[in-house]
Amino acid sequence: MERFNEWLFPTLGNWWLSLLLVLPIWIVTEQFWVALTFNIMAAVNYPYPFFVSPLFFVVDYVTLIIHEAGHTLFGLFGNRLLTILGGSILEILLPFLIFLSGWMRKQRSVAQFSLFWLGFCWYDTAAYCVDAPFRLLPLIGDLPKSAHDFYNILTELNLMSESRTIAMIMFSIGFIAMIASLLYP
After folding, report:
1. Confidence band of 8 (pLDDT split at 50, 70, 90)
2. Which residue has the higher pLDDT, 2 or 61?
3. What does the CA dihedral 53, 142, 137, 71 come to, rounded to 10 degrees?
């Protein structure tokens, strides 16, 4: 057994976080794929397995807080479209900046987890985008359906008919970030 431990731990050295992330990546990818291809509400009410539920609870609510802060931060520029986009911009920008910081400082775990978080944020934004024509997602603070970010963004840019295509591109970027988080070590 001692010989096995001597072989196992050096082998796993850089890959332990990848092993821990495989199942959460599989689950979140499935959840958001269901949201994009079937029904957004199936993703909202997705039954997480008990052992990954705390992870998704924390990641989801931290991301929501950052998203809402982005509206305020980008609202300082005084442009309505930028204010609305600001939530999604900051939601994606912050994990990317944390990744860059971890990468430059050679902090593998920080860089790797931030890639997972970045992928999650792209998935989250894709689901929000695909919901634009239907506006089924419950908004924070019981805001009216007219406050839906991507409904307003895509309406203003005259891209509502392309919401599914745009969402699939976002999902693809998220998927690439998820795979990168597994392969980072």
Report:
1. low
2. 61
3. -90
Residue pair 90/66 in contact (Cβ under 8 Å)? The answer is yes
Backbone angles phi, psi at 44, to 5 degrees: -65, -40
DSSP 78: -
Q: DSSP state, 157?
A: T
Distance CA 113, CA 2 (A): 31
- The residues, any chain, with a CB within 8 Å of residue 14's CB and separated by 6 or more, are 108, 185
Q: Are 74 and 131 in contact (CB under 8 A)?
A: no
* pLDDT 10s digits, 110-165: 999 999 999 999 999 999 999 999 999 999 988 999 999 999 999 999 999 999 99
d(CA 113, CA 95): 9
Give the integer Cα–Cα distance in Å for 172 and 185.
21
Residue with token string 């010989």: 3
